Amino acid sequence: MTASAFVSLRDPTRARALADRLTHLTNRFGRAPVSVMHVCGSHEQAIARYGLRATFPKGLDVIMGPGCPVCVTDLPEVDEAVVLARSGVRVATYGDMLRVPGTAASLGDASADGARIDVVYSVAQAVDLARASSEPLVFFASGFETTAVATAAAILDDPPPNFSVLSAHKYIPPVMEIVAEMPGTRIEGFLAAGHAATITGWAVFEPFVARHHIPVVVAGFEPLDILAGLARLLELILEGRPEVSNMFPRCVTREGNARAQEKLWRVFRPAGGNWRGIAHVPNGNLRLRDEFAHLDARRRFTIDLTSLWTDSPSPLVGQCICGNIMAGLTLPDRCPLFGKACVPDSPVGACMVSSEGTCRIWHQYGGHPDLGGSR
Amino acid sequence: MCLGVPGKVVSVDGALAVVDFWGVRKTIRLDVVDEPVSPGDYVLNHVGYAIRRIPAGDIEATLALYEELLKADDAQDPMAVDVKGEMLA
Fold first, then answer.
1. Per-residue pLDDT tens over the stretch A110-168
2. The domain A40-310: what is its CATH number?
3. Mean per-residue pLDDT, A283-310
4. Residue of A nearest to B65 (CA)
5. Over chain B (89 residues), what is each successive 10-residue block's mean pLDDT?
6. Domain boundaries in chain A?
7. pLDDT for the residue numbered B62
8. What are the C-alpha distances in Å from A237 to residues A12, A167, A277, A280, A289?
């Protein structure tokens, strides 16, 4: 990297100017708080890592919504993978999924009991594992549309007959509708994740904006990208201009990656389903189309979840407030379990498991990173 | 898993490319990349798949964030760990 690129992206003068602009804009509302939501674990990582909340004005709440795909994977989806693994089927999955609690057990628990679980970085590695043997291999697939595109590509690339997919993939735009319609919601604008929009294009948010009259700004992950995105969002709210604004043009176009979208929607169909702790989200889950039934683990195997009913969940689970945190209704450090009974090494809720989970991020970078900020 | 990682294409063989991520060479797939890719181009890698060819004028600005994250040697830094994980994909 040259000095000029670094200066333009990390220039403290520009950062200070943007922070001042945020304060100026927030003050112009003449009321507090102004609440906006981002839906991306990487945004929260950057906000916490670079201490951005310390620069936010007191009247501005920047809330992380359901932006962690691991965290919103529903209990029965984890249970399906656990039952398959316990029945002797080899399961491959992304590392974050190992410790996500199911109703009574995680895949990590199943592995400790002797089930065969392989951690992979890519669906392509899962396909390679399947190709190297004749035994059935199920890829337990999690992630938003950016990650689902890779699963779709693997499915379209003639995988071996012993390979199948248990899809827990989720699609972000529909859950924004749920949050916007939630009773008591305070969200006045959304910051959308740059890399998901790399695939979908920013036009994907136009129907949402038209329906809810809430502006959406697509932002990147540099500290200055986020500050600039928030300033733009406040301007749009103040001016009463519900529209989509692309503040990440170096990665995101209006139409997005058409080739990736074509593969995504050829393989997957949107289906309604529960997001853990949030709600039933119409069209929020990505399931394999009938044409690919032979690669769909749900149709290849009989997955009997009643076998888990003899196990009982941890009594702490009832106290977990992950759902309210992801809905923007409360914060990690208001949970009695946070940092005490619930820590990264022994998580109670999924938000403490994933590196993209709000609780995990807050725990790592300091439980209350708003140093002198909004709270 | 939202964050892709940029790398420089070293060679292309059909739907596969060898890509250099700060000295770490990995083979990634080109099934879903938006534009044709040639050696010398930069691409954004997500879970082993190139999801975008980075326009020439945007390469430096795209690399900046990662330069700093890769310098972090804190094994508990979730953002740095995610980026390193993507490099292994």
1. 999 999 999 999 999 999 999 999 999 999 999 999 999 999 999 999 999 999 999 99
2. 3.40.50.11740
3. 93
4. A222
5. 82 97 93 96 95 88 74 71 74
6. 40-310, 315-364
7. 76
8. 26, 37, 28, 28, 39
DSSP reduced 3-state for A179: helix
Give the CATH number of domain B5-88: 2.30.30.140
ipTM, interface predicted TM-score of the complex: 0.87
Q: Which residue of chain A is at minimal alpha-carbon distance from B43? A: A251
| DSSP-assigned states of every residue in B29-51 | E-TT-SS---TT-EEEEETTEEE
Q: Could you read off the pLDDT of A226-236 as tens digits, one per residue?
A: 999 999 999 99
Pick B79's closest partner by Cβ from A45, A144, A257. A45
Q: Is the pTM of this model over 0.80?
A: yes
Measured between CA atoms, the residue of chain A closest to residue B54 is A251
**Interior angle at CA A112, CA A106 and CA A113, nearest 5:** 95
Q: Point out the residue among A9, A40, A356 whose CB comes nearest to the CB of B61.
A: A9
Strand-pairing partners, residue B17, are: B12, B28
Domain ranges of chain B: 5-88
Contact call for A121 and B64, based on CB within 8 A? no
Q: Which two tokens stand for residue A119?
A: 């951690």
Closest-CA distance, A56 to chain B, in angstroms, reads: 21
